[in-house]
Amino acid sequence: MSSFRNSTVYQIYIKSYCDSNGDGIGDLNGIRSRLDYLKSLGIDYIWITPFFKSPMNDNGYDVADYYSINPMFGTMEDAEALIREADERGIGLMFDMVFNHTSTEHEWFQKALAGDPKYMDYYIFRDPVDGHAPTNWVSKFGGNAWEYVPSLSKYYLHLFDVSQADLNWENPQVREELKNVIRFWKEKGVRGFRFDVVNLISKPDVLEDDFVGDGRRFYTDGPRIHQHLKELVQDTGIADMMTVGEMSSTSLDNCLRYANPAEKELKMVFSFHHLKVDYKGGEKWALMDPDFKALRDLLCKWQEGMQAGGAWNALFWCNHDQPRAVSRFGDDRKYWKESAKMLATLIHMMRGTPYIYQGEEIGMTNAGYTSIDQYRDVESTNYYDILCAEGKSAEEALHIIGERSRDNGRTPMQWDASEFAGFTTGEPWLSIPANHSYINVETEEKDEDSILAYYKKLVQLRKDHEIIADGDIHFLETGTDDVIAYERTLGDEKLTVYCNLRGTEVPNAYSAKGDILICNYAVEDVTDSTLKPYEARVIVNR
Ligand code: TEU
Ligand code: CA
């Protein structure tokens, strides 16, 4: 297996990848049937989003039993076969550990609800304060983060949906339970783990109202977070495995510890600051065009900052919680191909481990839904109601959801041009964009100039050129917010990367000399430094 530094990870949102039995829902056997495709991409690891027993209020991020497979996705035998067959192809599986909370249907929570003190201490129960919720904290999915249980006369904390109760990590028994989950899957041959919102697990001892924010400053990168992570990693023996933590609203200082080998916490982190450059006033539900100056400054800060502290980044634009990058930061019509390739180049040439989210490698776009009834995500439907209640017209609310909904990234994988895109023979659980007629794997596999072919090249370049995996990074001043540029160096080797973020030409963009390593246009003369619309050029300097 390759080192994590020259590896590429592929993320699968299981519900939308490939359906093997015609019920319209992707499943484990569907993934098995696509392993040769994944092998042909050249990726090293697959992170699969949760497929454990769950009522699916948050599509599996509400786990009711960490040890059993949701029948909707298959059986334990299917999971074991998938691990084995991936392994035979040199691909390691990473499972998704949702340890900040469980489903309220989990046995532990059910026992807590029945008043069993042992299990009440697995969660965060508090008495009412002056007849209302213990704090004014806001749930990430809208509304107050506390739910009252009349039979117990107490509230429990849920930072996400009301059916996702936060676990009490200060209880050593909880920590032991969760370590056992890791040990169980490690034993089955899983090669790595992705930890869901793991920087939210450590809550303060005293919970207080937040009069300036939504409460996140009290529990984000919380008081004992590093201690808990170190203990989890050490006691389960996963320090040398492939691990990534999803870090919500985190800071660089904390990530320098989460992802520094000397700290023995995690191999790398997902941080999201660069994905808020189109949030007006930092607010997800307020639309704004992307601010590319802010994007450049954030990429620079995190790339150079993590490097200075010896820590490692996960590199990504897309996942199952984000709109599609080509629709959001590129142009999904006129310069669809060029802008998708440019965005890919921008992150794949950086210092860190790139993640490709299913469909990104063929340039899949936002869903383009025209009715709220087409949405399935709990966050989208909650916020549609909230936006309407705030006085937005139904049309405005639908427009905002259309830009920001997590369902944009969850539409079924487009395998071919047939009615249901080769995803299913039945009725897909979420509607498929009409553009699958030309944006699909089958079509792109036949085209040497496709987005798919370009991604394959990027993955291979990281393996062939040590400088991409191991070189230093330094961001360059370009004199325009429209071009992001950086150089990579290793010994006396140097690569320079130029990306034009706009659909207009940029003349005289650089003075570097050398040969083209990869570019999204056919370049005849590398000394002609005019960048075409959305052009990305990687130059091996002489
Ligand atoms: O996501 C955490 C997270 O912070 C985002 O979901 C974000 O809060 C959300 O998009 C609101 O804008 C992880 C998972 O990736 C997500 O799918 C789960 O819903 C969530 O945790 C709860 O487990
Ligand atoms: Ca199925």
What is the topology?
Layout: E1 9-12, H1 28-32, H2 35-41, E2 45-48, E3 52-53, E4 65-69, H3 76-88, E5 92-97, E6 101-103, H4 107-113, H5 117-120, E7 125-126, E8 146-149, E9 154-157, E10 164-166, H6 172-187, E11 192-195, H7 216-219, H8 225-236, E12 242-246, H9 252-258, E13 268-270, H10 292-308, E14 314-315, H11 325-328, H12 336-348, E15 353-357, H13 378-389, H14 394-404, H15 441-445, H16 451-464, H17 466-470, E16 472-476, E17 483-490, E18 493-500, E19 514-519, E20 536-541
Parallel strand pairs: 1-2, 1-15, 2-5, 5-11, 11-12, 12-13, 14-15
Antiparallel strand pairs: 3-4, 6-10, 7-9, 8-9, 16-17, 17-18, 18-20, 19-20
Helix pairs in contact: 6-8, 12-16, 13-14
The structure holds 1-O-alpha-D-glucopyranosyl-D-fructose (TEU) and calcium ion.
Residues 58, 61, 98, 140, 160, 196-197, 246, 248, 284, 320-321, 379, 406 line the site of 1-O-alpha-D-glucopyranosyl-D-fructose.
Give a quick set of tags describing it.
binds 1-O-alpha-D-glucopyranosyl-D-fructose; globular; 17 helices; 20 strands; single chain; alpha/beta; 542 residues; binds calcium ion; five-stranded antiparallel beta sheet; eight-stranded parallel beta sheet
General description of the model:
The longest helix has 17 residues. The protein is 29% helix and 16% strand. It is built from 17 helices and 20 strands. Helix 13 packs antiparallel against helix 14. The structure holds 1-O-alpha-D-glucopyranosyl-D-fructose and calcium ion. 1-O-alpha-D-glucopyranosyl-D-fructose binds next to loops.
Could you provide a short overview of the structure?
This protein is α/β, with parallel strands linked by helices and 542 residues long. The protein is 29% helix and 16% strand. Strand 8 (146-149) and strand 9 (154-157) form a beta hairpin.
